[in-house]
Amino acid sequence: MIAEEVSKISGENPFACFQCGDCTGSCPVSFAMDYGPRRMIHLIQLNLEEEVLKANTHWLCASCYNCTYRCPRNISFTRISYALRNISVKRGIYPNKTTKIFYEIFLDHMLKYGRFNEGIFVREFVAKGGKGLKELLRDINLGLKLWKKGKIPKDVDKIDKLDQIKKIYEACVKEEKEDKQ
Amino acid sequence: MKVGYYPGCSLKGMEDAYSISLISSFKVLGIELVEIEDWNCCGASVIPSYDYKFANALAARNLALAEEQNLRTIIAPCSECYNRLAYINYKMKNDAGYMEKMNKILSEAGLEYRGTVEVKHAVDFLVNDFGIDKIKEKVKNPINKKIASYYGCLFVRPREISVESAENPKTMDSLVEALGGTPVDYDGKTKCCGASLVVSNEKVGLQTIKNVLDSIKETEAEIIVTSCPLCHANLDTQQLTIEKEFKVNYMLPVMYFTQLLGLALGLSEREVALNKNLTYEVLKV
Predict the structure, then answer these.
(1) Of B170, B152, B168, B149, the residue nearest B222 (C-alpha)
(2) Residues of A in contact with B54 (CB under 8 A)
(3) Which of A8, A88, A91, A106 to mutate to test the interface with B (most CBs of B within 10 A)?
C-alpha cells in the first residue's frame, strides 16, 4: 500500500491531513503540477498508487518546505515527495530523461568522489544528452562567460576516506533488504 | 575566535566567490574558519530523492567528523547544506531512537555521533552570535544603496531549524543596515527560486526564478544580496537566460552577503571575488 510505504520512508502520516489546502496555496510550483500537494495527499490516503506515481507533483517539488511550515497538522509534503521519489526510482520511474541523467551522475559522484563535482557534472550531463540542442546553442555564450570568470572548476575534489561512504551506502542498502523480508 | 566550517561542494566549485569572500571578510572581523577535515557532500536534494536514509546518514557522517575534530560549532554558508546538517542534527539530538538507528549505520564505517555539535547558518552566526554592534565598529566604507535581501527557503524552513520567522525574516536586513545600506521590503523574500529545478525541468525552473526577480524588480532595489549558492546561481547566472527566454530586462546586480560585508569592511573587489558574479558588469558601487 502506497500510504504505508510513504509513511515508512518519510516518517510522515498522510492520514493526519484534513484537506485544508494551505500546502497547495503555499506551493511555488503548484502552477505546473498535475495535482497540488493537497490532492496528492488525498490520493495517497485512498491508496491510488498508479495515479500517485504517474503524477509529476513529487518531481516538481523544489523542497522549499513552505507547505511544511504552514501545515496546521504538522505534515511535511516535502518529505512525502522525497519518499515518492524513492519509491519511483526503485521501480525505474523518472519524469523525464534529464532528471534520470542528473540523478545518476549525482549518485555516481557521491560514491566515486564523496562530493559533487560541478565541472565534471556539466561535461557528463551534456555528453549523456541532458540538454536539448536548442538549449545547448543558447547556453554557449553563457558557458564562455562562466569560463572567462573562472567559474568552471577543473580539479576533482575527492575525499580521503571514500570507503566510509561506501560502507554507509552498503549498510543502508542492506537494512532496506532486511526490512523487506 | 575560531569556528568550524563546512563549505559544501558548491563553495569548492562554481560558487567559490562565496567562500573567498566569507573567509576574507570573517578574517577582518577576527573570525577564523576551521574546515572539517574530509567532509563529504550533504546529499543536497538529489540523494534524499534516491534514498532518504542514505542521505541522512551522509549528513550524520559530517556531524561525527566535526565531533571527532572537537569542533563544537560549525557554520554552513550554503542553505541546502545547512538544512541537511541542521535537520539531522536536530533529529538525532531530540529522538533517542533515531540517534541509535543512525549510529548503527555510522558504526559500519567506524564512526559515532554523540550530539555535541551545533550547526549554524553563516548569516545567523554572524548577526546573532558575533553581533551587529561589533560589525558596525569595523565598517569603513558604508554601502549607501537600496538593498534587497533574498533569504530563500532553507535558512528559515522547516520550523525545527528555522533561524527566524519564515513569513518576514529580518536577519540579513539588519546586517544590510549595519553596513550602511537601506533594506527594501518585498513579498518575495522567502519565495522559492526553484533550486535545482532549472536542471531537472528547465521551463518550470526558469519561471520560479523569474517570479522572484519580478518581485524584486517592483522595488527600487539596486543590489540583491544572497546567502545561498543555489539561490545566487539562479538569480545571478540564470538572470541572463531569463532575460533572453522571456524578453525582459532586469539589470539587477546580485552579490553574496559576504561580498557586501567585505566591501563595507574595506576589502577590495578582488579580495571578495566580486567580478565572479555574472551581473557584475551592471553593478555601479
Answers:
(1) B149
(2) 168-169, 172
(3) A106
Q: How close, in Å, is residue A46 to chain B by CA atoms?
A: 23
pLDDT of B285 higher than 60: no
ipTM score: 0.95
Partner residue opposite B241 with nearest CB, options A66, A142, A172: A142
Q: Tell me: the pLDDT tens digits for A115-127? A: 999 889 989 999 9
Sheet containing strand B223-226, edge to edge, reads B182-183, B146-150, B223-226, B254-256
pLDDT at A99 over 90: yes
* Average pLDDT score over chain B: 96
The fold of the B2-121 domain, in CATH, is Glutathione S-transferase Yfyf (Class Pi); Chain A, domain 2 (1.20.1050)
A82 and A16 within one domain: yes
Question: Would you place residue A133 in the very low, low, confident or very high pLDDT band (cuts 50, 70, 90)?
Answer: confident
Q: Which residue among A90, A114, A129 closes a domain?
A: A90
SS (HEC) of B105-127: HHHCCCCCCCCCCEEEEHHHHHH
